[in-house]
C-alpha cells in the first residue's frame, strides 16, 4: 500500500458515508465504456493488473488484454523508480488488485497518467468485480 495513511483514512470515511464520488459504484478498470464516459474527470478505479509493459520513458499497467476496452495506467519513469524503491516490481504487481486515482484521459483507450506513487494502492486478492467498492461489472 503506497497511499498516505492519513489520506486513506479520510477517503475511507467518505467511502463509508457514501459521500462525493463514493455516492455511486466505482467504474471497474475493465469497464472501458464507463471510463470513457468519465474522460476529463477524477476517478478511483479498481482492478487486477494483467500486463505490465516497461518502456524507457514510462511503464504501462494494463487491466485488460490487448485489443479489449479498459484502463491503462501510465507511470512516469520517476514514479516507477519510486514504486521500485517501495519494493514493487513488474513481477510483484502483475496479477495484483490495485486501486488507482487520477483523471481519465482517452488515448487509444482510457488512461490514467500517474505522476505520484501515492495514487496507487495495492489491495488484497479479492475479486475486483465483487469487492468492497462494488464496481460495475464490465458491459458486454
Structure characterization notes:
By secondary structure, the chain is an alpha+beta fold. The protein has a domain of 97 residues: Nucleic acid-binding proteins (OB fold (Dihydrolipoamide Acetyltransferase, E2P)), CATH 2.40.50. Strands 1, 2, 3, 4, 5, 6 and 7 form a seven-stranded mixed beta sheet that branches. The chain is globular, with a radius of gyration of 14 Å.
Computed CA radius of gyration, to the nearest angstrom = 14 Å
Residue stretches low in confidence (pLDDT < 50, at least 5 long) are 134-140
CATH top level of the domain at 26-122 is: Mainly Beta
CATH architecture of the domain at 26-122: Beta Barrel
Order of helices and strands: HHEEEEHHEEE
Distance between the termini: 31 Å
Beta-strand portion reads 25-35%
Q: CATH superfamily assignment of the domain at 26-122?
A: Nucleic acid-binding proteins
Helix count, DSSP H or I runs of 4 or more residues:
4
What are the salient characteristics of this protein?
OB fold (Dihydrolipoamide Acetyltransferase, E2P); 7 strands; seven-stranded mixed sheet; globular; alpha+beta
